[in-house]
Structures are given as structure tokens and as C-alpha cells.
Amino acid sequence: MQPVDFTTLIATCSELRANWLPARTEQVYQRDRYTITIALRTMKQRDWLDISWHPQATRICIAEPPPRTPDTFTFSQQLIHQLGGLALIAIDFIAPWERVVDLKFARRPGEAALYHLYVEVMGKYSNAILTDANNEIITAAHQVSQQQSSVRPIQTGQPYETPPKLTGTIPNLNESQTRWQERVSLVPGAVKKQLLKSYSGLSSSLLTSMLLAANISPETNTDTLTTDDWDRLFAHWQEWLQTLEVGKFQPSWIENGYTVMGWGETAPAKNIQELLNQYYTDQLNQQLFSQLRHQLTQKLNNILGKLGTKAKTFKDRLQQSDQADEYRQKADLLMAHLHNWQPGMKEIILEDFETGKPVAITLQPDKNAVQNAQKLYKQHQKLKRARAAVEPLLLEVQSEIDYLEQVEAAISQIDNYQTADDLQALEEIRDELIEQKYLEDLEYRRRSITETASTNFHRYRTPSGFEVLIGRNNNQNDYLTFRVAGDYDLWFHAQEIPGSHVLLRLEPGTVAEEADLEYTANIAAYFSRGRQSEQVPVVYTQPNRVYKPKGAKPGLVIYKQETIIWGKPGIIGDR
């Protein structure tokens, strides 16, 4: 993940000053453990300013409104208590080339600042610290005790101390090319590495884009650079410093990230705020998606493994109970042939009543024939009782397995992060498993809780132009089948295979052609556990013929009057 460097910080603060000063502070909300967002209102607009001290994604930028869920963090409550209703009057840096931004708040523009919100953009040491006018710390996003750091503790009631000053050489627009070149090439080495060593305020991403813009590989040794190479590189160096001074940035997307200098642009960005918000939202979502998907997959594998073991135990016990009738038959045979028994016998061979075949019956020599028969009858009754007790238990375990395999299939369909909808669909699965008591709430830090399923279904169009909707998880499946489906639609599902509910939307009076049915069947096959098969049996019926059994878990339904059609998942996968 590309960190916010000094250049990007200058760019975003410059844009914020131009559009958001002065602004009234109306609300403060904490999105997560690393991010607060402040509602700002100017004479022309109202929006939300995100301030994040995330170790990999520290940033300041305008972002989307927060979710409408309760804010349970104390830091945001402390901020709104102090800053609510005040004006944001300045966005300054505490010193040249320092990555610490000072947001100043006063009663009204033109008055002295009552509070300072210092945002320290320093990687894993990033922080957000609120002080009063005398720079005494009121609260901090991350407090640092004396034991944690004797150099710079950060605690309520103590004076705010700025981070240690920069020790490297500061880039200077007035420095000559000769002096600059001497400094960089003093010790031969890769040009990018030598620039990073020689000057403060630089970042790996900035230098990579600068060098590539100058048509120089970052790994090129300084000894091998030609005069033209040095001239081109110095020209871009000067361009960078002039941009910092003038403040005219070019926010752009590049192949593996973003730039505010326009170098290596693959697509322009509307503004710096939108650029930063989109980049870090996507990067953090991708990170959360990967972590959550791994956690859910591992958890499901563990649960299904235990349930599989339990089911096998029950099946073994049922298999044993299948011998119940055999014990009764042997007991009947023995009672019918009491006269054939002799004291001390360990085994007696008698002919079966129906087949006439010999049946060997093991006997206990210390018991008579009647006692041995009674023992066989008892074993028969014991196994019959076991079957009556085990069958419902096996049914319950198998029902759980079916449900969790359906969840597992839904997760397998959400295999890559592409948009925020993918993360939301995965979070809904997590919330569903928490509601069904398969996961502990505290085990997974939930960002938001929605009371109803989202409607970010997968959407396709059939050859005739009919819309096809596909549920991405069990709650969406239920919502699609029982809330969205209309009287004229058709409901599809892979036959007896975990998969998504699929809805073919039809207008009144329209009839789906054979090609539409086949296309929708292919989709239902693709969004099922049978995705890797050449053909998958798919059923379809009218939505009013799909029912949810009383007490059934999310996504589990029964249907009737269905038609079977073969779906080819590979056709959809090749698109």
C-alpha cells in the first residue's frame, strides 16, 4: 500500500485550504479504531473530512458520509465535546518539511485558536492529538505512556511536544545542479537509493515516478548516468520543488497506485480528495476482504470438520442398529429350537425359517437356551432404542452441514475483491453466522450492522434482454426469493447442490425463450458448488412454489412443480 508522503500531504492540505476554510464543525464520528470523520459546513457546501492514523494508510481527505450506526468510541465523543460548533480556521504545518498538520479551531474566523488537532503522518507512529490553546494535551487517538516511550510520551494533561526534528538535508529549489549531483553521487549506488539517503521529504513512490518520468531505471547506478540523464532528472527534481512551492498539483492514477505530480498517469483524477479517498478505501477494503474471507473459510472448515466427525459417529451407530432385526431373528430361532440346546454349548447352528440356510448363533455356555435368547432380545431392543435416539440427531447434524455448505458455497463465489459490494456481501455472511451462533461477536470486529440484506445482487442480461438477479449470500437469497420475486418471474437453483438463488425477471405477458432459460440455468450452475463441472442439473419453478420451512436457517428452501434443465457453468466462466 502506497503511504501518504510529504508531497501528497502538501497537496491535500493545499486543496483543503482552498475549498474548506473557514468551515463550521457540526459533527464528529469515529468510523473505526483508526479513523474519525468531521462534518464541515461552509457557505457553499457540507461534507465529511476523514482523519486517519492507520499505520499503513494515514491520511487527511474529504470522504463519504459515515454509516448510520451508533458511534461507540470515546475519542470522537471527546472531540465533538470540545470542537462542536467551532470554526476550522487554519490547516498549517508545524514546521517546513514536517509531516505534522495543525488543524486550528476558533469560535469564529479571525479569532485566536482555542484548540489544535495535530495530525501526525508518520507511518506506524501516526497519531491524532487534541490540545488546548496552551498546547496541553486534552485527548489523543493513541496515548503513549512513559514506559512505552521515554523520549516522547503522549498523555492527557501533559504538554504537546513535537516529534524529533529532521536530521537529513532539506531539498532546496535554489540548490545548483552541480551541488545536487555531487551530493547524490558522492557514494556510488542505485540512484533511487542514493536520493533517499541524501535528502529528507522524499518517498519511494515519488522517486520511482520521478525517475521513470526522466526515463531512468530506479536501480541505475549513479556512476553509469550520463550528463543527459542527470539533466533530465534534475529538471524533474526542480519541477517537483516548484510544484510544492506553487501548489499546482496533478492528481492522477498510475499503474500501481497514484501520484499528485502527473508523472506516469494512466487516468486523471477529479481532485486530490477523491483520489486519496478512493485509493485508501479500496486498499483497506481489499485488506479487510482478504482477512475476513480467510477467517470465515478457516472457521467453516473447522466447524464442518467437527460436524462431519459427529455425523460419521451417528451413521456408524445407525449401521450397528441395522443388526437389531438379526438379533431378534436369532432369538426367535433359539426359542423355536430349545430342544436342540445342550449344556455348555458355545455355538448352535440352526436353519433359517425362510431361507433354510444355516445360521450360527453364539451362546454363553454358563446360560441356558432361554437365557441366551433373552439376551439376544435385549440387544435387539437396545439397538432399536439407539436408532430412535440417533436418527433425529443425525438429521439435525446433516441439516447444519447442508446449511454451512450453502454458506461455504456463497463464500467461494466471492473469491476476489473488486468493489465495496464484495466486502459488504462477505460482511453480511459474517453477520449471519454471528446471528446463527456459529461465530462469536467479539471474535470479529464488525464495521457496520445492517438490519436487512443489501441488494447488491449480481446482475446479468439474457439474450432477449431479461434481467437476471443472483443472490451473493443466504440473506440476499431469502430477500431475492421472498421479497423481490414477482408473480411472472422464474426461480432457478442448482439441483441438490449448494448455490445461489437466481431470479429471471419477466414482465407481464412476456415469455422466456429457450435461450433465456438455458442462459439462466448456466448462471445458476456457475454460481453453485458445481462451477467446475461440465454440466449441472438446475431446477426452475415459479417463485410462489418456493417455500421456507418453519424454523429453517437463512437460504434454505423447499420447492415443488419444478422443471429440470441442464446448466453449463463454463459458458458463463468464459465471459
Automatic annotation (TrEMBL):
InterPro entries: NFACT_RNA-bd (IPR008532), RQC_Subunit_NEMF (IPR051608), RqcH_bacterial (IPR043682). It holds the Pfam family NFACT_N. Keywords: Protein biosynthesis, RNA-binding, rRNA-binding, tRNA-binding. Key component of the ribosome quality control system (RQC), a ribosome-associated complex that mediates the extraction of incompletely synthesized nascent chains from stalled ribosomes and their subsequent degradation. RqcH recruits Ala-charged tRNA, and with RqcP directs the elongation of stalled nascent chains on 50S ribosomal subunits, leading to non-templated C-terminal alanine extensions (Ala tail). The Ala tail promotes nascent chain degradation. May add between 1 and at least 8 Ala residues. Binds to stalled 50S ribosomal subunits. Associates with stalled 50S ribosomal subunits. Binds to RqcP. Belongs to the NEMF family. PANTHER family: NUCLEAR EXPORT MEDIATOR FACTOR NEMF, RIBOSOME QUALITY CONTROL COMPLEX SUBUNIT NEMF. This is Rqc2 homolog RqcH. It comes from Okeanomitos corallinicola TIOX110.
